[in-house]
Design goal:
- The protein is α+β, with helices and mostly antiparallel strands.
- It is 48% helix and 20% strand.
- The chain contains twelve helices and eight strands.
- It has a three-stranded antiparallel beta sheet with strand order 1-2-3, with helices on one face. Strands 4-5-8 form a three-stranded antiparallel beta sheet.
- A hairpin with a 2-residue loop joins strand 1 and strand 2.
- Helix 1 packs across helix 2.
- The two termini are 39 Å apart.
Length: 294
């Protein structure tokens, strides 16, 4: 049977599912509208679509290491209660395993891939979990890292997944040491590895701000430049990993810690769950009253 655009439109209006999902459902059910609705419900697509406009700003960061490959990912949900759910935990682990094996380059690619290379797509797998748990769930972002046998991954998850960090520490195989570096990254939140990594525009902007601050304090112009350079050093300490005091021993800088090990850090990633997502403020009493009316 030929599936027409009007049939797809009708199914979309009934279920809220995407156009391609509706088309596939109609094809699989030979154009039977009721069976197509059931098909989408069974796949979890219909219920997931209805939740698409909800805000998912909670969730968890998760890391998984397999030999010389590691992944850090963030999966969002609507409430922090869900992160304690065994089905949500299983979802995190399955997604991490898929990412390590398939090594996609971006989220859209992941969602279209068959989970573990076979069967339902990752998007369908997530939608089925949405149907079971009853909340919007999204794979927000991920990073895949590679190392050699001479290096170590530092992976750290804080407070049940609220913050995750992954660093590749080169020149050492000491995993405990590498984890300490990742823990520092999670706790202190550096933006760059070193001074050299900070772009010129950021440095110049900060220099101008510091200069204006000094002038506003009434400092003589002839000493302002020296003051600015001194304060710029403090700025680098705030944003550069190597310039920071180690969180477990503030008397030692991270760069000294690494030097003593003969190690270096070329890159790291830190995810704080929900950062940058605008959370919707809700009045719980009003929400209950609204549901009772309905």
């Amino acid at each position: 049977m030929t599936v027409t655009a009007s049939m797809v439109k009708e199914l979309r209006e009934k279920t809220g599912a995407g156009m391609m999902d509706c088309k596939k459902a109609l094809q699989e059910t030979n154009g039977d509208m009721d069976q197509a609705v059931d098909y989408l419900r069974e796949k979890g697509i219909s219920s997931a679509a209805k939740k698409a406009d909800r805000v998912a700003a909670e969730g968890a960061a998760y890391t998984l290491i397999d030999g010389n490959t590691a992944v850090l990912l963030e999966v969002n949900c609507e409430t922090d209660f869900v992160t304690k759910n065994d089905q949500f935990k299983e979802l995190l682990d399955e997604l991490a395993k898929h990412l390590l094996a398939q090594k996609p380059s971006h989220v859209e690619e992941v969602l279209a891939q068959p989970l573990h290379g076979d069967g339902d797509t990752v998007e369908t797998y997530i939608n089925k979990t949405v149907a079971k748990i009853g909340e919007k769930i999204t794979l927000r972002r991920f990073v895949i890292a590679e190392k050699t046998d001479a290096d170590a991954f530092g992976a750290y998850i804080h407070m049940g997944g609220t913050i995750g960090a992954l660093a590749t520490v080169e020149g050492t195989t000491d995993e405990a040491f590498a984890k300490d570096i990742a823990m520092h990254i999670a706790a202190v939140n550096p933006q760059f590895v070193s001074r050299d990594a900070v772009d010129a525009e950021t440095v110049e902007k900060e220099r101008e701000v510091l200069k204006q601050q000094a002038l506003n304090e009434g400092k003589p112009e002839k000493i302002v430049e020296k003051m600015v350079e001194g304060r710029l050093g403090k700025f680098f300490e705030e944003i550069c990993l190597l310039e920071q005091n180690f969180v477990k021993d503030p008397d030692v800088k991270v760069k000294q810690l690494l030097a003593d090990k003969g190690a270096t850090v070329q890159a790291f990633t830190r995810y704080q769950v929900g950062e940058g997502i605008e959370k919707r403020e809700e009045n719980f009493a009003e929400e209950v009253r609204s549901q009772m009316k309905n």
